[in-house]
Amino acid sequence: MQVLATPKLRAPSIETVSIDLGERSYPIHIGQGLLGDPGSYDAVPRGSMAVIVSNATVAPLYAAALEAALKSRHRQVELVTLPDGEDHKDWTTLNLIFDRLLAVGADRKTVLYALGGGVVGDMTGFAAASFMRGVPFVQVPTTLLAQVDSSVGGKTGINHPRGKNMIGAFHQPLCVVADLDSLRSLPARELRAGLAEVIKYGPIADVPFLDWIEAHLDDLLAGDPAALRHAVRRSCEIKALVVGADERESGLRAILNFGHTFGHAIEAGLGYGVWLHGEAVGCGMAMAAALSSRLGLLAESDAQRLVRLIERAGLPVRGPALGADRYLALMRADKKAEAGEIRFVVLDGLGRAVLRGAPDDIVRQVLAQHGD
Ligand code: NAD
Ligand code: GLY
User: Fold this and answer.
1) Residue 226 has what DSSP assignment?
2) Domains identified in the chain and CATH numbers
3) Mapping DSSP to helix (H, G, I), strand (E, B) and coil, where does residue 82 land?
4) Rounded to an integer, what distance in angstroms lies between the CA atom of residue 203 and that of residue 289?
5) Which residue from 155, 250, 260 has its CB within 8 A of the most atoms of ligand 2, so it is best to mutate?
6) What is the pLDDT of residue 311?
7) The dihedral of CA 199, 204, 209, 210: what is its sign?
8) pLDDT of 317 strictly over 50
9) CA 371/CA 324 separation, integer angstroms
10) Contacts of 47 (CB under 8 A, 6+ apart)
11) pTM of the model
């Protein structure tokens, strides 16, 4: 799939990508200084209670600025601070949100604000999808990964020890406010993890973007604001087009899971939080490229090109030694599997991704090539 879109300019420093989902359409605002600007939240109705959901790392950095921006829009602003970490993306932590919503007297008009990375975003979205059978929410992503991927598209949920993101719901936000300034406080390892999801969009949908990432990788790794802005905008444009065409993943949307079948197995197999999600996806993309090549769909040189880029981004391309049987068992539990058959997102040439099964012996060869 090759996608092209022109972003709408709100002001010179703010760009807005629209995601077209009929009555569930919403804007994704990208720029600097947005988080603390009341105008960023124009899509949110006035007058209700706001509950900011964040975590112990992000709240001290950004909750006060968000709270101040929301004071003129909401009659009351509350903050819930969750423990930080992928290993807390579970029922126990989700319940902390529900406990607080009930304690402060939240109602059906209460708006939740997810302030943080993908873990906070996925859990807040799921809380919003299920509290009183659904309340509105806003995504305020503060990691690169969340700005380019998880805050857009309405997938929400929590992990199960047997499988990543196994319990959840589709629930679209009212808007996404991606403040590039928040990336300045992001640790280098988290920035690299976010680059995995940026790289993903090139091979699945946009070869010129892949060329651009290769040319600007050093700028991205150095946190160059102009490079990050382009990466976030182009990633959101591609994701918005894919989700706009297939909101509930009846087909096309699965391509956004390139590298994730292997990656989710790594995360669940090692225990959540040992490898970062983006690290597991980076390695999973190297494995998926090798699989594409072994299936005769992708030139070996193109697979190598991707592996080199993933390595340059500082991401792993060799998986942990879980053993092939364990990898296969974990991948059979993947949400894309049907009747026990694992289905992988593979590249049918660079720029085009397809979903298909693969013989176990070929998958074992890939694991041997990219495993221990
Ligand atoms: P994360 O949410 O754990 O954030 C990474 C770390 O950075 C955390 O320690 C966090 O507290 C910290 N942090 C966040 N913003 C910061 C900032 N501005 N400055 C300093 N520290 C900051 O991880 P992530 O990579 O953002 O998200 C990964 C999660 O996203 C996974 O659970 C994954 O399954 C999910 N995900 C969901 C979708 C989707 O479509 N819903 C897509 C991709 C990934
Ligand atoms: N991150 C995969 C999706 O949103 O579908």
Assistant:
1) H
2) 9-185 (3.40.50.1970), 188-370 (1.20.1090.10)
3) strand
4) 9
5) 155
6) 98
7) positive
8) yes
9) 9
10) 74, 75, 109
11) 0.96
Instruction: Assign 372 a pLDDT band (cuts: 50, 70, 90).
Output: low
Evaluate: CB of 153 within 6 angstroms of ligand 2.
yes
Check if the beta carbon of residue 220 is closer than 8 Å to that of residue 202. no
Q: Which residue type, as a one-letter code, is found at position 344?
A: F
Q: Are strands 8-11 and 14-19 parallel, antiparallel or unpaired?
A: antiparallel
260: annotated active-site residue: yes
78 lines ligand 2 (CB under 6 A): no
Atom of ligand 2 nearest to the CA of 149: 1
Sequence-distant (6+) residues with CB within 8 A of 1 are 204, 205, 242, 252, 255, 351, 352, 353
Residue tagged 């607080």 (tokens)? 100
Give the tens place of pLDDT for each residue, 190-235: 999 999 999 999 999 999 999 999 999 999 999 999 999 999 999 9
pLDDT for residue 8: 44
